[in-house]
Amino acid sequence: MATRRPVKVESSSRARGHVSWRATNGSSRDRLRHPKQATVAETQRRPSSPANTKGIPDRAATRRESASVKSRLDFLRLLEQLPEAAVVVSGQGEILFANAHTENLFSYQPDEIIGRSVNAVAPVGFRARPVGAGLDLYGLRKDGSEFPADIRVSHVNTSDGGLIVATIRDITEQKRAEESLRESEARYRSLVEACPDAVTLTEIEGRILLCNERAATLHGFRKPEEAIGQNAFDFIAPEDRQRAMEGMSETLQTGGVRDVQYMLIRKDGTRFAAELSASVIADEDGKPTAFTAFVRDITERKRMADALQKESASLRLLEAVAFAANEASSVDGAMQFALDRVCAHMGWPVGHVYMRDPCGELVPSSMWHIDDPDRFRAFREVTQATHFTCGMGLPGSVLASGNPAWIMDVTSWPHFKRSKEAKEVGIKTGFAFPVLVENEVVAVLEFYSDEEAEPDEPLLEVMAHIGTVLGRVVERKRAEEALASSEARTRLIIDGACDAFVAMGADGVITDWNAEAEKTFGWPRQEAIGRPLAETVIPRRDRKAHRRGLARFLKTGKGPLMNKRIEVTAVHRDGHELPVELAIRSARFGESHSFDAFVRDVTERKLAQEELARAHTELEARVKERTAELSESNRLLRREISERKKADGAAARHAAELERSNAELEQFAHVASHDLKEPLRMVASYLELLQRRYKGRLDADADDFIHFAVDGALRMRSLMDGLLALSQVGTHGRPFQPTDCEAVVDKALNDLAVATAESGTIITRDPLPTIFGDAGQLEQLFQNLVSNAIKFRGEEEPRVHITAQRKRTEWLFSVRDNGIGIDSKYSERIFVVFQRLHAREERPGTGIGLAISKKIVERHGGRIWIESRLGEGATFYFTIPRKERALTR
Predict the structure, then answer these.
(1) Alpha carbons within 13 A on the beta-carbon side of 752
(2) pLDDT tens digit string along 139-148?
(3) d(CA 306, CA 295)
C-alpha cells in the first residue's frame, strides 16, 4: 500500500475568500501532519482576516472559512486513503490534487503531476462522462507507455463552481485473465474437434450436453446439434445396456473407466463394436455432475485382430492436473477489508455483508464488523435470520435500484424490518451500497450508526465506487473460476484421449505431454515438458526439415502438414524408430502460436500391412503357377468335356428310360396291389370262415394249418395296403398349401388315441409352425413316427416329445422317444421297404411305415434321419423347406 501523503491547501482571498483545492508537495506534507503549522502558514499567506464594514475582523466568517478548510482537508485525507489512484480536476481539466497511488501509477513525481492537464494521463476527458459511470480506456504513463484503465468520475459542487473527482485503476491483470479465458475456450473447442475419437459431455442420467463432429457421425447424425439432448444409453445395444448402467455406478465411485467394450447402435439401427473411456466431472463439493466419454469405433481393429491376430490396443486414461485458482475466501477477505475500513473511516460501529443467492434473494453472511458484540447481539441475531427480496428493506431497496441508499432514522422508517431490535440497541442511521458486476448486484454492504446523521451524497458516491471495485474482485474471481473450469475440461479431453497428446510452443519446446505419450515415446511427462520437440521424438535426419517447416509456418501461416492426418516416422527414447499417425492443429493467441497433435502408434498396423503385402506377392506367384496349370487342365478338360457330352447323351437317354421304368413300376405296384386286394380278401374271408366252423373238429395240426393260412392272408393284405399307400405318395398327393402343424398333429394323435391309452404313452410337444405342404401326408408322417415310438417302447413309461426349430432356409422337426433304440449301423436300413430289425412275434409291423415317411419327406423337399443308441431311445429328424421348394407331383 502506498504511504499516505499530506496535502497543502492554499487560500486565495482574491477567489471569493474560499480555500483553493490546489495541492502541492514538500513542506505541505509536513504541514498536513502538523495542522497548527499549516494554519500558521495559511495565516501568513493571507493579507488579513475578513472584516466587516467597520474594519473589525468578522469572526463568524473566519469560523466558516476554517470549517470549510477542515471539511476539504478531511475529504482530501479520505482520497489519500483510497486503495487506488484518485485525482481532483478543475472544470478546466487541470489536476489540482493526486494521491500517492496516482503518482505511483503514472510514474510522476508530486511536483510534476499537479497543475498538468488531465489529458496528460488519460486520453479521454472527464467532463462529458456520466457521473459514476465506468469506462475502460488506456492510461498514459510519464514514459509514454499505456495501460488499460478503469476510470470512475464524480462531480463535487463547490461555491466557486464544480470539481471532478476521479479514481483510476490499472486493469491489466483483469484483461489478461479475460484473454486467457478466451484462449482456453478456443483451445478447448480445438481439442474437442481435433480429437480423432468421438467425444461427448454427458449428464449423469445420460443426456448428451456436448459432442464433436466425430461423435455425431459415429452415431449416424449429420451434425452434433442432432445428437445433443439424446440419451447416450439409448445408443448401447440392449444386451450391453445393463452392464453399461452398472459400469456407470462404478465410474461414479472410481472417477473414471477406460477401455470398456460395448456393442453400440447407430440412428439407423446398424450396430458396431466400440471401446469407451470415461472420466467423471465433479463440482466444487466433489459431487459428480457429468462425465466425459471417449468412444472409438473398433470394428476395423477387431477385423484386423481377427485376420492377423497381431494388432492390439492399449488405452489409458491420463492423469488429471487441476489448475491453481484463488480460493473463494479471497472475495470474502476483500469484503471484510471493506467493512473494517469503512467503519473505521466513519466511526460507525456496525457493518455487515449480504450476499445474493442463486434464487435472487439477499442472504446474511458471516462477514461482520461490530465494535461491541454484546451490545449489538440482538440486532446481529435478527439480521442473521432475515432474508431480503428485491425492494424489501434497506438491502432490498439497494438490490432493486442498484444504487446506494441512506436512511437517516431506521427506527422510524416503516419498511425497516429490524426497527424494533435497532431501537433496543440504539441504532439510528443506516446506509447500504451494492457490489456490482457489470449491472448485476451480487452483494450489498450495510452500515449502521448509533447517532443520527444526514445523508452524505459525496460519501455515497465513493461507496458506490468501492462497490464497483469489490465487484471487480468478484468478476475477476469468476473469470478465474471460469478459466479453471475451462482448463479442467481441456485437461479431461487430453487425459481421456485414446492417443498420445503432444503440445508445442512456437519456440519448438514441448508444453504438454500426456500419459499415452509417455507410453508411446518412453519419456516421463516431467522430463518431456520443456524439451525441444525435435530432439525428443523426431529422428535426427528429419530435424532440420522440421525446424525449416516451423519457421516457414510462423512466417507465412501455411504448412503442408497442418489439419491433415499423416504418417511419419518418430523415435523412441531408447533410439528405435516407430511409425506414427498424427493430426496437427495450430492455434494463435495474439502474437503467439501453439501446436497440438494427437499421435497414434501404427506399428502393429504397419506390420499387418507388410504381412499382407508379402502374402499378396506370394499369392501372385502362386496365381501365375496355378494359371499355367489351369491352362493345361483346361485343355484336358475341353477334351474330357467333348467325351462327356457323348456320355451325357447316353446318360440322358438312360435317365429317360429309368424314369419311364420307375413310372411303370409305380403303376404296376399300384395296379398289382389294387387288383390283388379283391382275391386276397376272398381267400382271407373263406379261411376265416373255415377257421370258425372247423376249429376243434379236426386234429390239432389242421387247426394250426388253418391258423397259419389265415395269418398269412391277413399279413398279405397288410402288405398290399402298405404297398398301395407307398405307391400313392407320389401320385395321389394333394397340392401344397399353408398347413397348421398343430392341427395336423392333433388329428394324428386322435387316430392313435387307442394305442396311446393302451400303452400308457405320454406325448408332449413344443409350439409347432405353419408350413407349406400336404396336410394329409404330413398327418400320416407324424402318425407313422409316433406309432413307431409306441411300438418300440421299452420297460420305462413311454414318453414321446415333438419339437420344431426354425433354421435359415428350413424347419427342423424332431420326434424323440425313450424306447429301446437301434444300433447306429442300421440307421439307413430302417427306411428301406420291407426291412425289419425284429421278428414279427417280437414287434408287429410290415416294414413299410418308415419307407412311406421317407417318401413323404422327400416329396416335400426335405430329409429324414435317425439318431439313436441301443437301449437309449431314438430321435427321428426331418426337415421341411420354409419356402415353396417342395415339388408337387
Answers:
(1) 26
(2) 888 888 888 8
(3) 21
DSSP 112-167: HHTTSBGGGT-SS-STTSPTT-EEEEEEE-TTS-EEEEEEEEEEEEETTEEEEEEE
Distance (Å, rounded) from C-alpha 259 to C-alpha 247? 12
What residue type is assigned to position 769 of the chain? P
Residue where the block lists cell 483545492: 21
Q: What angle do CA 418, 422, 427 make, to 5 degrees?
A: 140
Four-CA torsion 622, 624, 626, 630, nearest 10 degrees: 170
Which residues contact residue 413 at a Cβ distance below 8 angstroms, ignoring those fewer than 6 apart? Answer: 407, 419
Tell me the pLDDT tens digit for each residue of 15-29.
Answer: 333 334 444 443 333
Q: Cα(367)–Cα(336) distance, rounded to whole angstroms?
A: 6
Q: How many CB atoms lie within 10 A of CB 222?
A: 11
| pLDDT tens, position by position, 189-225 | 666 666 777 888 888 888 888 888 888 888 888 888 8
**68, 196, 251, 274, 306 from 236: Cα distances, Å:** 81, 21, 17, 10, 23
Q: Name the residue type at position 540.
A: R
The answer to whether the CB of 278 falls within 8 A of the CB of 240 is no
Q: How far apart are CA 405 and CA 402, in angstroms?
A: 9
CA distances in angstroms from 351 to 399, 431, 444, listed in the order given = 17, 10, 11
Which pTM value belongs to this model? 0.29
Distance CA 830, CA 785 (A): 12
- Comparing CA positions, the residue from 366, 364, 354 lying closest to residue 405 is 354
Rounded Cα distance between 5 and 28, Å, is 9
Confidence check: pLDDT of 805 > 90: yes
**Residue-wise pLDDT tens digits, 354-390:** 998 888 888 898 889 998 889 898 888 889 888 988 8
| Strands 770-773, 737-740: pairing kind | antiparallel
CA atoms of 640 and 630, how far apart (whole Å): 14
